[in-house]
Design a protein that fits this description.
CATH topology of the largest domain: Signal recognition particle alu RNA binding heterodimer, srp9/1
Number of helices: 3
Structural class: alpha/beta
Keywords: Dioxygenase, Oxidoreductase
Strand order of the largest sheet: 1-4-3-2
InterPro entries: Glyas_Bleomycin-R_OHBP_Dase (IPR029068), Glyas_Fos-R_dOase_dom (IPR004360), GlyoxalaseI/FosfomycinResist (IPR050383), VOC_core (IPR037523)
Strand content: 25-35%
Number of domains: 2
Order of helices and strands: EHEHEEEHEEEE
Helix content: 10-25%
Protein name: Dioxygenase
Organism: Streptomyces variegatus
GO molecular function: dioxygenase activity
Number of strands: 9
Radius of gyration: 16 Å
CATH class of the largest domain: Alpha Beta
């Protein structure tokens, strides 16, 4: 794998209830919450969940859409998530995620095999939605 200097730092997801979203990502997806207590205390505007040492998902309250004035039309993206975010996991993490989502009765797509991604063909992959409608793909490579 080529070592690139650019890294994916964070993705901002619009959510109705950041605390409920953080709970979903912690319990069903297995990601660690960041700044949750600070958000609950009103000290920071949104919490996040950690994907890995370098990447987080920011759980931005949908009510903040009107504040998105950094570019013309930015507020218009509220409620319009990207097509999907893909999480690449080791095989055991992939299997554990499948189990947690099944336990939480989260609807999932069928398993796919050999879908192309950043590291070539993934052994298995599937899709699921979070409670706010954001679509995620999970995959593992051998």
């Amino acid at each position: 794998m080529t070592d690139h200097t650019a890294r994916l730092d964070h993705i901002v997801l619009w959510v109705r209830d950041p605390l409920a979203a953080a709970d979903f990502y912690e319990k069903a997806v297995g990601l660690e919450a960041v700044r949750l207590a600070e958000f609950a205390a009103g000290e920071v505007p949104f919490p996040s969940v950690r994907v890995n040492d370098e990447t987080i998902l920011d759980l931005m309250p949908l009510s903040f859409a009107a504040r998105m004035t950094m570019l013309p039309g930015s507020a218009d993206s509220a409620g319009h998530p990207v097509n999907h975010v893909c999480l690449s996991l080791p095989r055991d993490g992939f299997d554990a995620l499948l189990g947690r989502l099944e336990e939480s009765s989260v609807p999932m797509s069928d398993l796919a095999h050999d879908s192309f991604g950043a590291r070539g063909k993934a052994t298995r992959s599937f899709y699921f939605r979070d409670p706010d409608g954001n679509v995620f793909e999970a995959r593992h490579y051998d």
